[in-house]
Design goal:
- The chain is mainly β and 825 residues long.
- Among the domains are: 18-219, Immunoglobulin-like (Sandwich), CATH 2.60.40.2990; 480-821, 7 Propeller (Methylamine Dehydrogenase, Chain H).
- 0% of the residues lie in helices and 47% in strands.
- The chain is built from 1 helix and 66 strands.
- The strands form 23 sheets. A 5-stranded mixed beta sheet has the order 5-4-3-7-8, with no helix packed on it. A 4-stranded mixed beta sheet has the order 6-2-9-12, with no helix packed on it.
- The protein starts with a strand and ends with a strand.
Length: 825
């Protein structure tokens, strides 16, 4: 079974120009009937051959006479069990008229032969004709149900609708040519239907040889030839095309890309102006320099899949290279090939050679002293010169060698056939046994490693699964979750309704740890950031209603501790994580007797010695409280301020020398207050801001010099305010932002550059915002997240690189979210 491949220009109908009713093709390749053969018998178990016979109706002295012009048996099999020399069903063959036969009736007879015998199981007969200038399709299905049905003369067993048949019966065997299907209708031909082509020319004496069924084969098509499509080509109707690259048949036979689009991996894409897009055109397309559009056609020889083909830069079509002629089976050397000697139609007689395009009989090649020439070899048994190779020099194709056993030109070791070209196994465009280029992630370079596609990542990138991930980022961007960005936003946990009262802290390696309250389970939630950017959740305490007002901090040994409120018992709680996992939970303050109600608004820090410091609100006494526990010691509780209703929204900081500072809201006078614990255990308290109702949502941080800075909410004007004490007793207050209702849930921290950074909630826009103080003490403000209602219960921590880590609540979805903001350039 010989495989014939069409040229890149896809002139497939020309390939079918083999006269089955004569020796010439008067009307060109477009006038023909394509017969599609199929059966519902199991092939090859029940039926292993289909017999086809073609007759033409001629007038004689005795009247109309059916004269046989062609007969052939087709070995058949199933597509899943294809055997060499057998045709997968359904299969097709073409019938073309010769001169004078355009108006003549033809008869096609099919028979299904039982496996291993000459028994005919069922037959089918159709009388039809040609439609001049058109290719029509005739479906001939051999139905099992027809085996026991006897039809009258002029009838055959089938269905009036040949494409849909549930109950075959006797019908008129005549089908008018105009009632045949158009071959180019979508779905007319099955995918990958093999198209066997045979010469059925009627010999002058009317005899029918048993094998060929006609005269000498037409020079353009070898006897018994089959046209299939070799990878990377696929059949579309009567064309062999590369559906991964051809914009005329992109992805399937019915999809033609719009003008200007290219076909990339079987999908139509718009590359933009090919003159300036940086990549030009891909696939079987070229760049039109006048319009900047990618048009179907070639611009480079590498786009041509046919052997000895080159790209004509003016026609943008694949044509035969110099010294080769475009014949139906491809580009051939008509100077030396006895199958195409001098032209595409001339086949030298058996034993002849072709020299400078002329058939010559060299005599017995075993004794003529010169052997054989051209593309022939000397048959040692007969002494005839037969078409084929004997040496590698006769194989002129790329990477070809001569198989002296079959006398065929085959690919050399280390290469394989793609289309009609031998391509290297180790090339990225044909790696292994593939006929498609190796692919790579954006920015990577594809490689072929020992016959397997691979890729190499560029500098400053590393391999992560099947992608290239950056190992560093340019200034102004942060590396997180395998990507660089100015801001990364991620949902850290979405299990239930979680995220209220969040607090964030960083371990020594810079990984973030978040605590929050899960209202759906009414428990304390702890989340630790993993190396792959996932989050590992734990529940340190439950099942009581615990976890509101959570605050997390690390001791010098890297152990996380959490202060939080137990709403069930109304106590201040403290949880410490154990090295082997699990948490130790203890009560810090249970209040006075039955009163309880202590522990709201908790703020936690641990100093360099590992001493834990907690400030919190005594709701029963309406006082600001403070608790401390040396490492390994017991808790000691102090009342910091009892003058009126004070202590809500408290925030605590510890200085380098162990000094303790607190900020808090005086609800009685609606002022912001600040206190410092002295060495003797007493507290020095002062009112910091008193202009209107100010002091809620305080956040306190000390700069590198130990100077206190406080961010807070001004409820009177709904502004976000900021104050600091550059000189003892002298506080300077300015606004961070005044547009809209801003500043609730604020959180303050300093970076290694000494600049203050704040995260806060914009009540007007329902957004999370971030601001950094500039050298002129103004603030650069940006919206971090605006998807839904986001930004409540925000908490901020700054790493050694100056990157801001923020935890906050997504109120719309009930999730805890995390944001990473790059350090400023």
């Amino acid at each position: 079974m010989l495989t014939l491949l069409p040229t890149k220009s896809h002139r497939f109908l020309t390939v079918l120009c083999v006269s089955l009713l004569g020796l010439g093709c008067a009307e060109g390749p477009s006038t023909q009937v394509v017969v599609l053969m199929d059966t519902d018998y199991a092939a090859p178990v029940e039926v292993d051959r289909l017999s086809a016979r073609v007759l033409k109706v001629m007038e004689s002295e005795d009247g109309a006479e059916e004269r046989q012009t062609w007969i052939r048996e087709f070995p058949v099999t199933s597509e899943a069990d294809a055997a060499p020399g057998a045709y997968g069903l359904p299969a097709t063959f073409g019938i073309l008229p010769s001169e004078g036969d355009l108006d003549r009736e033809i008869v096609i007879e099919l028979a299904a032969l039982a496996n291993g015998s000459e028994q005919i199981l069922v037959t089918r007969r159709v009388r039809t004709g040609f439609m001049p200038g058109e290719t029509r399709l005739l479906r001939m299905h051999l139905y099992r149900a027809c085996a026991t049905l006897i039809c009258s003369d002029g009838e055959t067993c089938g269905c009036a609708n040949p494409s849909s048949c549930a109950a075959p019966s006797c019908i008129d065997e005549t089908v008018l040519p105009e009632d045949l299907e158009y071959i180019d209708d979508p779905g007319a031909l099955p995918a990958d239907a093999g198209i066997p082509i045979f010469d059925g020319g009627l010999p002058e004496d009317g005899a029918v040889p048993p094998e060929d069924g006609g005269a000498e084969p037409d020079a353009s098509v070898p006897d018994g030839g089959v046209i299939n499509c070799a990878p990377p080509l696929s059949i579309c109707g009567l064309d062999c095309v590369n559906m991964a690259a051809d914009p005329r048949y992109c992805g399937d036979c019915d999809t033609a890309c719009s003008e200007g689009q290219v076909c990339d991996a079987g999908r139509c894409t718009n590359p933009g102006d090919c003159r300036s897009n940086g990549v030009g055109c891909i696939g079987f397309s070229y760049c039109d320099q006048a319009t900047g559009e990618c048009l179907p056609g070639c611009a480079d020889n590498a786009q041509c899949n046919g052997q000895h083909q080159v790209c004509d830069p003016e026609l943008h079509d694949c044509v035969c290279d110099a010294g080769f002629e475009d014949c139906l089976s491809g580009c051939v050397d008509t100077e030396s090939d006895p199958g195409f000697c001098g032209d595409c139609e001339t086949v030298c007689p058996t034993g002849n050679v072709c020299e400078i395009g002329i058939c010559i009989d060299p005599g017995d090649c075993r004794s003529n002293g010169i052997g054989c020439s051209g593309f022939t070899y000397c048959d040692s048994t007969s002494g005839e010169c037969l078409r084929g190779c004997a040496t590698d020099q006769q194989c002129t194709g790329q990477s070809e060698t001569c198989d002296t056993a079959t006398h065929e030109c085959v690919c050399v070791e280390g290469s394989h056939l793609c289309g009609a070209i031998c391509v290297p196994d180790l090339d990225v465009n044909s790696c292994g046994t593939s006929c498609t280029p190796c692919t790579a992630p954006p920015g990577a370079t594809p490689t072929c490693n020992l016959g397997s596609c691979d890729f190499v990542c560029p500098v400053d990138y590393e391999r992560c699964d099947q992608e290239c991930c950056p190992t560093s980022c340019p200034p102004g961007q942060a590396l997180y979750n395998r990507s660089c960005a100015t801001v990364h936003v991620q949902t850290a946990n979405a299990q239930g309704n979680v995220g209220e009262f969040s607090s964030i802290a960083l371990d020594a390696a810079g990984a973030a740890h978040i605590t929050c309250y899960a209202s759906s389970g009414r428990d304390l939630r702890y989340l630790s950031q993993q190396a792959d950017a996932s989050w590992l959740p734990e529940t340190p305490d439950g099942p009581d209603d615990v976890g509101r007002y959570s605050a997390i901090a690390f001791d010098p040994a890297g152990v996380p501790h959490i202060a939080y409120y137990n709403s069930t018992d109304e106590n201040l709680m403290f949880a410490t994580r154990q090295s082997a996992g699990g948490w130790i939970v203890q009560v810090v303050d249970a209040g006075d007797g039955d009163n309880g109600q202590v522990g709201e608004h908790a703020s936690l820090k641990l100093d360099a010695a590992g001493t834990a410091h907690v400030s919190y609100y005594d709701k029963a006494g309406k006082d600001l409280m403070y608790a401390r526990r040396p490492s390994g010691g017991a808790w000691a509780v102090e009342r910091v301020d009892a003058s009126g209703d004070v202590g809500q929204y408290t925030s605590l900081a510890v200085g380098p020398g162990g000094s303790v500072h607190v900020s808090y809201y005086d609800a009685s006078d609606k002022n912001l207050k600040y206190g410092v614990r002295q060495g003797d255990g007493t507290w020095v308290l002062q009112t910091v801001a008193s202009d209107g109702n100010v002091g809620k949502h305080t956040s306190l941080a000390l700069d590198a010099s130990g100077v206190p800075h406080i961010s807070f909410y001004g409820e009177s004007d709904r502004d976000f305010l900021y104050t600091s004490e550059p000189t003892p007793g002298s506080w300077v207050t300015k606004a961070i932002e005044t547009a809209g209702d801003v500043g609730k849930e604020g959180s303050l921290a300093f970076g290694p550059d000494g600049a203050a950074r704040v995260s806060y909630y914009d009540e007007t826009g329902k957004d999370l915002k971030f601001a950094i103080q500039l050298p002129d003490e103004s603030w650069a403000i940006q919206t971090v997240d605006s998807t839904g209602d986001v930004g409540r219960y925000t908490s901020i921590a700054i790493d050694a690189l100056g990157q801001a880590h923020i935890s906050y609540l997504d109120s719309t979805n009930g999730d805890i979210k995390y944001a990473l903001i790059a350090a400023p350039e």
